[in-house]
């Protein structure tokens, strides 16, 4: 579906709109090696944001998607699919072998990411397991964009994240850096239940302490 030759000759990523995270393997195909430099360097400094299957910030006639200041996990040979950067390489790309073989363990340490975002329509069992592996159980948040009632994978994701004490809250108010997307008609945020007891963390996620909670998985 994606051509290594086309990918190799594609234009460089847009680091004017997007902020370069200086990931050393972003311009390389997937490397199944065990001695790569994994991020973060120290677990005392969690990765702030990974957008799973992200392509960077895209502003087009169809709407706004993606984020400018994060890593984007995506197919090793995928290019930006729409907008002014169409057919350019994806900025800050962390490669996976393909869309159903989503193993980032050679690049990203376990339990090391503060926020993971994903469009729910793209979820599958492989990426769900990888998201559950990388998200931090104490301070992490997984945000699924779109009408989650339509996504078969949402129950599987909830089951895996429950093991890390992350529970779903529908349409929780997101921090500013995750707002502004116009292609989705809702979201659910999986948060550590303990956040409810910490007002400084709570404020960033849910206004006035009001939650809508999924009670069944």
Architecture blueprint of SSEs:
Elements lengths: L3 H6 L37 E6 L5 E3 L2 E3 L5 E5 L17 E4 L16 E7 L5 H10 L6 E5 L7 H10 L3 E5 L16 E6 L6 H5 L14
Parallel strand pairs: 1-4, 1-6, 4-5, 6-7
Antiparallel strand pairs: 2-3, 7-9, 8-9
Helix pairs in contact: 2-3
Can you characterise this structure?
This protein has one domain: 3-Layer(aba) Sandwich (Rossmann fold). The strands form 2 sheets. The chain has a 7-stranded mixed sheet with strand order 5-4-1-6-7-9-8, covered by helices on one side. A two-stranded antiparallel sheet has the order 2-3. The protein is of the alpha/beta class. The protein is globular, with a radius of gyration of 17 Å. The chain has helices at residues 4-9, 125-134, 153-162, 199-203; strands at 47-52, 58-60, 63-65, 71-75, 93-96, 113-119, 141-145, 166-170, 187-192. Helix 2 links the parallel strand 6 (113-119) and strand 7.
